User: Fold this.
Amino acid sequence: MPGRRVCLWTDGLWPDVRTPGFGDGGRVIEVRELTKRYGRTVAVDRLSFAVRPGQVTGFLGPNGAGKSTTMKMLTGFIRPDAGTASLDGIDVTTDPVGVKAKIGYLPESAPAYPEMTVEEFLKFIAEVRGFRNSDARASAVDRVVSLTHLSGVRKQTIETLSKGYKQRVGFAQALLHNPPALVLDEPTDGLDPNQKNEVRSLIKSLAAEKAVILSTHILEEVEALCTRVIIISRGRLIVDETPAQLRARQPGARIDEIFRSLTISDQ
Assistant:
C-alpha cells in the first residue's frame, strides 16, 4: 500500500507522516519515529505510536528501556534528536510550551509544596496555568477538588496528608486546565491496596474523555487499568496491542512471565 508501512499498531498499520490526513481520526497523542541519543547510546530508537481518547495505554519496559526519556520528550522537557511527537496537533519540537498546555502531567511521587494547603497549592498552579481572574481560578480549583474527592482535606497542609491523598492532589493539579491528554508516571507506586483502587477508579473515569498514557513497572496495572499495552526494550517498540492479545501470546502464562520472555529475548 503506497505511503504506508506495517508496524505493531493496534489498527495493523501506521500511517506515514507524509500521508494526507495524518493526525485525523481522533488521535490526541502521536509519536513518530522519535529518537534520542546520548553519545553512542541510543536511548529511544525510532519509536512510533498513537493514543486516542478513551484509551488507557500502559507504557512498559525494563529499567533502561527508554520509558523516562520518551516521557520527557513527549512532555516537552527534552528535545528529540530525530522524529517528533504531537499533542492535540501541536508539535513538541516546534512548540514545546504549547504542548505543555495540552498535557496533564503527574510525575512520579506527585511532588508538591508540603507547607501549602491543598487549596493554596491548587490556586498557585491554576495561576501558573493562566487562570488570572480570581473567580475563574476559584471555579477551576472547586471543579478538580470535587472531581478528585479532596473537599475534606482542602484546608490541610499537603505534608499532613496520606500518600493516597497526596496522589489525589497530584491528579488535581494535572486536571486544572482540563487537558485532552494525561501522562502519568507510576501513578499507584507505593500506595496500599485501597489507595490503588481509588486511584484506578479515578483514572478510569478520566479516560472516558481523555487520552491516557501511564508509565509503570507494576504489571498488575495492565490488567486492572489498561485497554492497550506498549512495551519497549532498548528504546525500540516490541509490543503494541491489547492486554488480551498480550496474554494470547502465551496462554496460561502470567503477565510478568510474558513480559520477561519478550524483554529478555530482546536483550
In short: The longest helix spans residues 193-207. Confidence is low (pLDDT under 50) at residues 1-25.
